Amino acid sequence: MKQLTHLGVRCCLAAITLLFSAITLAAEPVTTGWLSNPDHPPVQVKLSLTGERDGTTANALLQVELADGWKTYWRSPGEGGIPPQLDWSDASGIEAIDWFWPKPARYTIQGIDTVGYTGSLSFPLQLQLATDATQVHLKGTLTMSSCTNICVLTDYPIDLKVDPSTLTPDADLSFAFQQAMAQVPQALPLAEVTKANWHAASTTLDLVLVRDGAWQAPELFFHSEQDDLEDVVFNNTAITVEDGELRAQIAASHWLELPELAGQSVTVTVVDGDFAAAYPVNLNAVEGPVPSPLLDGSTSLAWMLVLALLGGLILNIMPCVLPVLGLKLQGVISANGQSARVTRRQFIASAMGILVSFWLLAIGLLLLRWSGQSIGWGIQFQSPYFIGFMVLVTWLFALNLFGAFEVKLPSAMGSWAATTGDQHSYSGHFVQGMLATLLATPCTAPFLGTAVAFALAAAPGTILLMFTALGVGMALPWLAVAAWPRLARLLPKPGPWLAWVKPIFGVLMLLTMLWLISLMQSFISSTTLIITLLVLFALSLIAVWRQFGRKGVLITLSSSFLGGALLIVLLLFNLSSWAPKLPEDHQWRDLLQTNIDAEVAKGNTVFVDVTADWCITCKANKIGVLLQNPVYDALGAEQVVRVRGDWTVPVDAIDTYLKQNNTYGVPFNKVYGPNAPEGIVLPVILTDAEVLDALAQASATTSSITKE
Predict the structure, then answer these.
(1) Within 13 A of 260's CA, how many CA atoms are on the CB side?
(2) Cβ(681)–Cβ(659) under 8 Å?
(3) How would you classify residue 370: left for phi > 0, otherwise alpha for psi between -120 and 50, otherwise beta?
(4) What DSSP string runs through 277-317?
(5) 357, 471 contact by CB (below 8 A)
(6) Is the pTM of this model over 0.90?
């Protein structure tokens, strides 16, 4: 009997132990543990079921740990990146998975805006279980893109099995799930979208959001559940706030075509400090352009094409192009008396050189945009390799004009030219057109900035069409002579004076080369710059010696030294007789939007000047307006803060600022102040009256900003 009693006690203890073991095992959270890829250790992920279940809905938490300097992406990653994705096609017992996204942040690298996360983050998930599921097998692959200065796409295998009836809530995971859900923007009643318009003409969204209380530094993010909007990118957001009203203009673009969002549903996520909310809106189609300080008047494609034609035409009188135009005129004069057919073909060849150059520029900009790089008018001058190439080209052209060598065609091309009756190389005229285009790109003409800004924010087809219009506009004078060859007869007759024309244009081409070399100082040291000049000079002497012998070298050396000495004398002793001495430039602050906002909040007026060393129009604005009275004194006023962005080389902050203002080139000038917190955009070519008017309009007081 005693033995039976002991046996019963042991059996009870064993049963209790088994029971508690089963309870303990059931209470263990269902989790993958931390997963990492040995080839990509900076990122770890963990998927866990919280144990909470509401009917057929089970909560889960995807935790991500990113090493310092690494980021991953939001559901709509911006201009680059891939959002995290969970492929659960091999799972069983699951009908759907709802993925919730915490509020994101915007990151800008080299002018490219992306949206995502850094550090530690958690994505709440909800698994919709099958009604009759007795066993759930969550099997699939989590694919996550993470980036620093490189991007890595990593797969993490997910394999979890669970009986839904055994799920038991885990306190820590449940708390972490609720914390993560609190970071997911919801449609809060504290704010609402009062206007959501779609302007198809300018592919722009026009939004107004109002909230209880004042906006501080809001940011907007956009996404859509519709598959046909998957590749639409929303960028170049221009936001202005006034107390509780937020106005935003957002450019929408598609890599292949013009987006059409009329009647589409888009979710607007607004993040302002701790405030985060998401509002689904239906976009209303509105005829006509969105109001913009940049694009005054109609932004229809037809009107933009007209502006592109005018802008291209005006490029012909820019100083950079004059040496090439002079070279062309000299060629026409020297060929006086040739047949109308030959003249027509020569000018058509030059026009085709211009058009092909603009097409190449458009294709290059499209390739840069598709690769995620910043784009803009004249950005090739931010590359020392391009500048070096242009130095070489202008140097060779100058030597050719001085007669140091002649460009000879291959025999096949020479025979073709002879049989077509052309006395000169058609390819030479084609190259002249290309060179004129390349030298024109650092200049910005009236109408050109508006047309380029419209083009670079549009679809690829529109970009090609707009750049074709620019090319046709620049080629109009050449095409006019091709259409009416008799126009060439209006030029002076050739004579002995023509022998001096080539050297004059050679000097102009050398000056262009020296200007290009001066741009290299932003990329190489002064010593390297001097060595480059000496090497080019030595090579020039060798070319002259081979063509003209010792006498030619002596003439070149003496002319160079005499010309250099004369230039130094003029600069040292007679500079004041040529032009009034320019005053010392003001002190300028670096361009940062936060600094602008802070100064305006203090009641100051802020003058922004975005410039570049290679921008001829920028230099003209500086010397002709900014360093001359009355503008110089107005900018020196106590309540005026001067901010300058130097775009000679790519700078992320300047790229972002230009994109936010829907512009793609320099010069760009804008005035902010208490009466114009959103800023007043100035024309490309400045005048005293326009600058002073903008300063007076933006400032809180006009007592020290007066016009003369």
Answers:
(1) 1
(2) no
(3) alpha
(4) EEEEEEPEE-SSPPP-SSS-S---HHHHHHHHHHHHHHGGG
(5) yes
(6) no
Compare 537 and 580 and report the one with higher pLDDT: 537
pLDDT at position 124, please?
96
Residue 72 has pLDDT above 60, yes or no: yes
Is residue 16 pLDDT above 60, yes or no? no
- Taking residue 402's Cβ as centre, other Cβ atoms within 10 Å add up to 22
Residues 6+ apart with CB under 8 A from 545: 552, 553
The token pair that represents 369 in the structure block: 């945009």
| Domains, the chain | 27-182 (2.60.40), 191-285 (2.60.40), 301-390+403-501 (no CATH), 527-578 (no CATH), 589-698 (3.40.30.10)
* pLDDT tens profile 547-579: 667 776 677 677 767 766 666 665 555 445 555
Pull the structure tokens for residue 137.
């097998």
- Residue 487, both tokens: 């126009």
Q: How far is CA 302 from the centre of its chain?
A: 24
Cα 332 to the chain's mean position, in Å? 41
Pairwise CA distance, residues 166 & 159, whole Å? 18
| Maximum CA extent, the chain | 141
Residue 180 has pLDDT above 90, yes or no: yes
> Can you tell me the distance from the alpha carbon of 330 to that of 328, in angstroms, rounded to the nearest whole number?
5
Do 376 and 456 meet the contact criterion of CB atoms below 8 Å apart? yes
Residue 19 has pLDDT above 90, yes or no: no
